[in-house]
Every structure is written in structure tokens, then in C-alpha cells.
Amino acid sequence: MLLQAALALPAGALVLVPLLYVGIRATEATASQWAALLGSEVRAAVLATIALATIVSMGAGAIGAMAAWLVTRTDLPARRTLTIALALPLVIPSYVGALVYRGLLSPRGTIQQLLEPLGVERLPDIPPLAGSAAILILFTY
Q1: What does the pLDDT average to over 11-31?
Q2: CA 90 → CA 21, 52, 69, 128, distances in Å?
Q3: How far is CA 66 from CA 71, 73, 79, in A?
Q4: What Å distances lie between residue 88 and 73, 92, 133, 138, CA to CA?
Q5: Cα–Cα distance, 61 to 59 (Å, whole number)
Q6: For residues 131 and 137, what is the distance between their CA atoms, to the nearest angstrom?
């Protein structure tokens, strides 16, 4: 127990180094830098980030729990195949998924080009928070 504590103490100290650095740099900030940091744009970005993290955590948790229940507690005919298919998003980085999403659903994307001959002139706009949340949920569940 004492050995574990002796090994954990330096690791804990290393984790605190970046926090201490930020604290020291914060004491050197000027009033204008603090005003910019506490401005409405930064506040809006922080709130949007918190909202995105909350939505993605809840959505990924819900999908992951349901998928886990399906493959462990039910007698689905293709349960083994489904287990493998449900793990596939772990192989694809979320930024690649975002690029594919943009390539498919952007105003001049692949789906738009396929639907143009059918008379669809423009796909509906997807709000940034909803689009980001959907992609991150689908690649992190």
C-alpha cells in the first residue's frame, strides 16, 4: 500500500503541472485579455461545447446500452454479426465520419447531386449542433 502511494504521488504531481502552468499564466494576464476571455463569444462557445458534450454523452449512452442489451440478452438470429457490426464505428475516427457526412449532405454533396434530376433543388439545412451531435453519437456509442 505504501509503495502504491509512493508511485502514485509523482504521477499525481505530473498531472497538476499543466494546471499550475495555466494558473501562473493567468496571473500575468492583462485586463483586456481577461475581458476577451470572459466575453460573450467565448461564453457562447463554452456553453455550446457543454451542450454538445451532454447531448453526445446521453445519446451515445442510450444507443450503447440498447445495443449491448440486444446482443447479450436477446435471441436475435444474427447476433454475432450484429455484435461485430455494432463495433465498426470504433474503427472509423469521428473526423472521417464528419467529412463523409459533409460530403454526402452538404448543399452540393453527393445526395443533393443524386436528387437533382428528381427535382430536389436544395436539401434542408441541418443545424450545426444537431449535425455535430448526430455524427459524434454515431461514432462514439
Answers
A1: 89
A2: 34, 20, 18, 23
A3: 9, 10, 14
A4: 20, 7, 19, 10
A5: 5
A6: 10
| Residue 128 binned pLDDT confidence (cut-offs 50, 70, 90) | confident
SS3 122: coil
pLDDT tens digits along 37-73: 888 898 999 999 999 999 999 999 999 999 999 888 8
Global pTM value: 0.71
End-to-end Cα spacing for the chain = 36
Return d(Cα 44, Cα 29) in angstroms, integer. Answer: 21
Rounded to whole angstroms, the Cα distance separating 134 from 89 reads 13
Rounded distance between C-alpha atoms, residue 136 and residue 94, angstroms: 6
**Cell numbers linked to 38:** 470572459
In angstroms, rounded to a whole number, what is the distance separating the alpha carbons of residues 106 and 93?
20
Residue 73 near residue 61 (C-beta atoms within 8 A): no
